[in-house]
Amino acid sequence: PRNPKNKLYEIDFVSLEPRVALSLARVEVTGDVYTSFSESSNMNVSRDVAKLAVLCALYGAGKYRLESVLSKEDSSITASKLINSVIEYFQIKPLKEMLKEQATEGIIKNCFGRPIQIDDDRDSVLVNNFLQSSAVDVALAGFLDFCKLMNGSIRPLFIIHDALLFEADPKKLAPILEYVSNGYEAPDLGLFPLKITELQTHG
């Protein structure tokens, strides 16, 4: 840190892309996204398996690894059934249809209206591009809000996708911790949880 009294911190969004999808589907989740999916869908799988299934469904990741993990856990649930359950829970089908219609013009728009030029109109690619683009805009808006409110209390350094690194005086963390505890309220999308981590420095 530039100021020797300061320490380095990172705040980042928790499960940002899946939460964007849930917000668009008007599904409210207060706790962990993957545990909530598993419980709401009556799928008796671990959080790690649920997370992998969500990644497969939202980003088009191959289901072979999911099949392998399910087999190791001796689960009676098939990968296809689990992925279909994710698609239903996150309401991906209507999102795909909307994006497919937009893609005929060679451009889709994220949930804020920002255009995304596409050269591959496969369903998985469209959903992936839409969610990642929308998530980036949520993160940027959230970090801008945070920096404005904490002006003078922090020194922002840089952003890595959905994480902001900054330095701050550890004796003046109270308003920062309160902000992180409350999360970021994105207009029209709802509340997005945050977490904060103190980073280790060397030298």
Q: Key terms for this structure?
A:
single chain, 203 residues, alpha+beta, 4-stranded antiparallel beta sheet, two-stranded antiparallel ribbon, 8 helices, 8 strands, globular
Write the topology of this structure.
Layout: E1 7-13, H1 16-24, H2 33-40, H3 47-59, H4 64-72, H5 79-89, H6 92-103, E2 107-109, E3 115-117, H7 123-149, E4 154-160, E5 163-168, H8 174-182, E6 184-186, E7 190-192, E8 194-199
Antiparallel strand pairs: 1-5, 1-8, 2-3, 4-5, 6-7
Helix pairs in contact: 1-7, 2-3, 3-5, 6-7
Structure description:
This protein is α+β, with helices and mostly antiparallel strands and 203 residues long. Helix content is 48%, strand content 19%. It has 8 helices and 8 strands; from the N terminus they run E-H-H-H-H-H-H-E-E-H-E-E-H-E-E-E. It has helices at 16-24, 33-40, 47-59, 64-72, 79-89, 92-103, 123-149, 174-182, and strands at residues 7-13, 107-109, 115-117, 154-160, 163-168, 184-186, 190-192, 194-199. The strands form 3 sheets. A 4-stranded antiparallel sheet has the order 4-5-1-8, covered by helices on one side. It has a two-stranded antiparallel ribbon with strand order 2-3. It is globular, with a radius of gyration of 19 Å.
Quick summary of this structure?
With 203 residues, this protein is an alpha+beta fold.
